[in-house]
Each structure stands twice: as structure tokens, then as C-alpha cells.
Design a protein that fits this description.
The protein has 180 residues and is mostly helical. The protein has nine helices and no strands. The chain is 83% helix and 0% strand. The longest helix is centred in the first third of the chain and has 18 residues.
Length: 180
């Protein structure tokens, strides 16, 4: 415990987010549960956007598509209510990936478009690199090769503006996807 409950809620969620990168699914689940429990106990309903976003990823991983979509949509709704752009982005980006993996390309593109709008409004440059890279893949899957090339090029140019290894990797992946 750190004494500041809102910060503790965020800390549990941050540990869960780090565990996502390490594919430590038990830690993601435990951190999500701890964050949700504190949020509910203290009546900090808006903070539930954090564990909902983590649960979206957990459900996606286990192939529980409807639960994943519901979690991501609830995370987005709550984050939007309290104006938390980064969590709005995470939820929409996760939702887009989930929809893409189910071959629901139009839904994936709509969610990703919303995520890019959040990036634009909030100035989230590093997140826009990931979203633009994902956009290249969606364009490619839909057979729109020119748009895929442009998105990959844009992602690469954005990645040159800031030092963000995840974004750089996403831009390199997008470049590989389009074959340029």
C-alpha cells in the first residue's frame, strides 16, 4: 500500500500493463483484479477503465471474443467520461485488434479511426505511431495497397520524431507488411 488509493489503483494497472508486454498473464489478471477491487471499494468508478482495458486483453488472449469486446467498450466508455485519453486509446486500439483478429475489418477500422482521433485531440504522438502502423495492416488486409503504403510511411515518419521503441518496432513492422 502506498497510502494514496487513486495512485495505488493506477499502480496496480501499470504493473498489469507491463505484464502484458511480458505475456505474464497471471500477473495481468492479478493486477487487474487488485485495481478493480480498489476502484469499486473506494467508489472510484472512473478508474475501472484501467482494469477493464486489461481484462479486454486477457479475454482476447483466451479467445473470449464477446467478453473482450465488452471489456474494451466499457473501458473506453469510462475513460471517455473522465477524459483519460491514454486509456481511451488503449481500449479502442485493443478493440480494433480484437475485431481485426475476427476478420471484422470494417469494425476494426472504425475503432482504429476513433483511436487516431483521440491521438489527434490529445497530442498522443507515440500512440499514433502504433495506430498508424495498425492502419497499414488493416489497409493491406482490405486490399488497399496504396493506402497501406501511405500509412506505413506515415508511421515510419512519426517514429523518427520521438524515441519510443514500441512505436519504432510497430513502424518497422508496418514497413514489412507493405513490403517497402
Amino acid at each position: 500500500q502506498i497510502g494514496d488509493v487513486p495512485a495505488e489503483i493506477e499502480l496496480h494497472a501499470a504493473v498489469g500493463a507491463l505484464a502484458l508486454y511480458a505475456a505474464d498473464w497471471e500477473e495481468v489478471e492479478g493486477s487487474s483484479d487488485a485495481s478493480a477491487e480498489l476502484s469499486e471499494r473506494e467508489g472510484l468508478i472512473g478508474k475501472l477503465c484501467l482494469p477493464y482495458a486489461l481484462r479486454g486483453a486477457l479475454h482476447w488472449r483466451s479467445g473470449q471474443w464477446q467478453e473482450s469486446e465488452s471489456s474494451y467498450r466499457r473501458a473506453h466508455e469510462l475513460a471517455e467520461q473522465i477524459g483519460w485519453s491514454e486509456v481511451c486509446f488503449d481500449a479502442l486500439y485493443g478493440l480494433s485488434n480484437k475485431l481485426r483478429d475476427q476478420s471484422e475489418l470494417s469494425g476494426a477500422e472504425a475503432a482504429l479511426s476513433q483511436a487516431l482521433d483521440v491521438c489527434e485531440r490529445a497530442g498522443l504522438i507515440v500512440q499514433s505511431i502504433q495506430a498508424t502502423s495498425a492502419q497499414a495492416l488493416l489497409h493491406r488486409l482490405a486490399g488497399r495497397h496504396r493506402e497501406a503504403d501511405l500509412a506505413a510511411q506515415q508511421a515510419f515518419e512519426l517514429s523518427e520524431r520521438v524515441r519510443y521503441p514500441v512505436g519504432e518496432a510497430a513502424a518497422i513492422e508496418a514497413t514489412g507488411i507493405v513490403g517497402s
